[in-house]
Every structure is written in C-alpha cells, then in structure tokens.
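Hi support team,

I've been running sequence recovery on a batch of backbones for a student project. Most finish fine, but this one hangs at about 90% for roughly twenty minutes before it completes. I'm not sure whether the input is malformed or the queue is just slow. I've pasted the structure tokens below so you can try to reproduce it. Let me know if you need the job ID as well.

Thanks,
M.K.
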C-alpha cells in the first residue's frame, strides 16, 4: 500500500512540475528539481509517511528529508505563486485517484 501511495504522489508531482521522476529522485540541486523534491517530501509526510520512510524510499538522507519538510512553509512563502499552483494541481490529481 505504501508503494502505491508513493507512486501516486510521485506521479502527481511529476505531472504538475513537468520534471521527470528520475530527476526528482536524483541528488540534483537545481532549484526547480529541489522544489519538486520538496513537494514530494511534503505530500508524503502529509500522508503519514515518517521522515525515515521517505528517506528510505527516495534514497535521500534523513537529514535532507527533515530539512525539506521542516522548511517547506518557508519555501512556499518565498516561491508562493508557483508552488501554490503546483500544489493545487497535485491536490486535484490526488483527489481524482
């Protein structure tokens, strides 16, 4: 079940941001990729995944996941309109499934 939810969220983030999942899950630090990854971590965390589970499933460090999750609100405030649009698209995609 966790894998199914993970894939649903990853697909929704991939479609909203137009960034391929391979890049989202990579260690790339380009702002648009980091933003997509941050969205993925946020939605997984909101769905009840622990930071340790997210780290294992995405092959990122627990510290990386924690920083992204804890600083998500700051990121939304800084990149407000674009992230808000992405979040709306992701929310709509997840409701449809």
């Amino acid at each position: 079940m966790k894998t199914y939810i993970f894939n649903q969220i990853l697909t929704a983030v991939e479609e909203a941001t137009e960034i391929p999942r391979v890049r989202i899950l990579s260690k790339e630090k380009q702002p648009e990729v980091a933003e997509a990854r941050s969205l993925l971590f946020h939605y997984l965390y909101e769905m009840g995944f622990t930071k340790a589970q997210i780290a294992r499933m995405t092959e990122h460090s627990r510290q990386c996941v924690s920083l992204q999750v804890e600083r998500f609100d700051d990121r939304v405030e800084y990149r407000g309109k674009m992230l808000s649009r992405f979040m709306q698209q992701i929310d709509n995609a997840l409701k449809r499934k």
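--
Follow-up from support: It reproduced on our side and the slowdown came from queue contention, not your input. The helical segments are 2-17, 21-24, 31-46, 51-58, 62-70, 72-78, 80-96. No action needed from you.
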